[in-house]
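step=encode ok
step=design start
structure_in=
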């Protein structure tokens, strides 16, 4: 089994990179775990209280559950991956049954901040995109797909995203085996990662 961790600031293109990598690979050989599925369950809070959570701080993530799930997958067990709702800012009651596979890709802004999770990765990748480009992408995506408006995205960017990125996310670059520059679509880097995975699948 090969476990690949893909980190990088919000909007850097992690999800897009993962989709590009996975696209041409056999479906049953690769599974994807998103850190977003492991935001802590905050059902005991009201929506107004949940909106105020700092979702860019490592404490917002249930790393214990993520660690349990990765350990289970490594042992060949199927897990029930939680499904997160960005609109509700909360875990839903649904889960997705995720079976172990030869390659597991874990992606998320904070996955390299946790030493136990970091140790589980065979390859650590950091997707690097300039902050202005990330902000533009995040604005467009969150308005189109996550039910936000411009003021909300910009307030969150100034108050939490930027300081948390500087304090927690950007420093994890030093743990990466590979840094993928992603201001533009980087097909060469995608091909390299795909080649590494294909070698493992053969
Ligand atoms: N290299 C790129 N160039 C331009 N837009 C991109 C690029 N990569 C991703 N995007 C777009 O930027 C937005 C954020 O990308 P996404 O993959 O969701 O980032 P992340 O998962 O890191 O937050 C999406 O709307 C996506 O289509
Ligand atoms: O309820 C939530 C939980 C998280 N966020 C924001 O999402 C990003 C992480 O997702 P990416 O796909 O990597 O962008 C993080 O910056 C949180 O601020 C949210 O808005 N609401």
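sequence_out=
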């Amino acid at each position: 089994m090969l476990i690949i961790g893909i980190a990088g600031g919000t909007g850097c293109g992690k999800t897009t990179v993962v989709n590009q990598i996975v696209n041409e690979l056999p479906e049953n050989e690769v599974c994807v775990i998103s850190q977003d599925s492991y935001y802590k369950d905050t059902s005991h809070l009201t929506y107004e209280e949940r909106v105020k959570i700092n979702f860019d701080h490592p404490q917002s993530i249930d790393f214990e559950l993520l660690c349990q799930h990765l350990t289970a997958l490594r042992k060949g067990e199927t897990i029930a991956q939680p499904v997160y709702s960005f609109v509700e800012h909360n875990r839903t009651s649904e889960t997705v049954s995720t079976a172990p596979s030869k390659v597991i890709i874990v992606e998320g802004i904070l996955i390299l901040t946790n030493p136990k999770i970091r140790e589980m990765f065979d390859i650590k990748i950091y997707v690097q995109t300039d902050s202005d480009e990330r902000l533009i992408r995040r604005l467009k995506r969150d308005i189109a797909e996550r039910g936000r408006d411009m003021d909300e995205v910009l307030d969150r960017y100034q108050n939490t995203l930027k300081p948390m990125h500087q304090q927690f996310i950007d420093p994890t670059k030093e743990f990466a085996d590979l840094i993928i520059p992603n201001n533009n679509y980087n097909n060469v880097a995608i091909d390299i990662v795909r080649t590494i995975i294909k070698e493992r699948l053969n």
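step=design ok
step=annotate ok -> The first strand starts at residue 2 and ends at 7.
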